[in-house]
TrEMBL record:
PANTHER family: GLYOXALASE/BLEOMYCIN RESISTANCE PROTEIN/DIOXYGENASE (PTHR36437), GLYOXALASE_BLEOMYCIN RESISTANCE PROTEIN_DIOXYGENASE (PTHR36437:SF2). This is VOC family protein. Residues 4-131 form the VOC domain. The lineage of its organism: Bacteria, Bacillati, Actinomycetota, Actinomycetes, Streptosporangiales. InterPro entries: Glyas_Bleomycin-R_OHBP_Dase, Glyas_Fos-R_dOase_dom, VOC_core. It comes from Nocardiopsis suaedae. PROSITE patterns: VOC.
Amino acid sequence: MKMGLEYVTVIVDEYDPAIEFFTEALGFELVEDSPALTSAEGRPKRWVVVRPPGGGTGLLLARADGERQAAAVGDQMAGRVGFFLRVDDFDRAYARMVEAGVRFVGEPRSEPYGRVAVFLDIAGNRWDLLG
């Protein structure tokens, strides 16, 4: 039996700035942006999916709905790195992201598993850029 992790949700404040961050700053593809409704209350929302070029697991960008979700924006992993973006050319990706205004929280370093630098997404979640 073949399985794959299709989506991971990232809670954001607003859709459009999040789409811009992931597509412009990180270079992801916008896979889908469709109108939808909340399941219980029927309030309008959007189904927004972005993913790294070439496929793989998509990110479902979900606008916070209510106080509990709003409190989780930027802290989905309780301050830990919770997302890992592997690139084939670390130096090129790092330079492009810095130029695009992505906020890194430290200098790149070498680890046994490759080059790594921690950055924050638009919501404030911590990511590892891996090369």
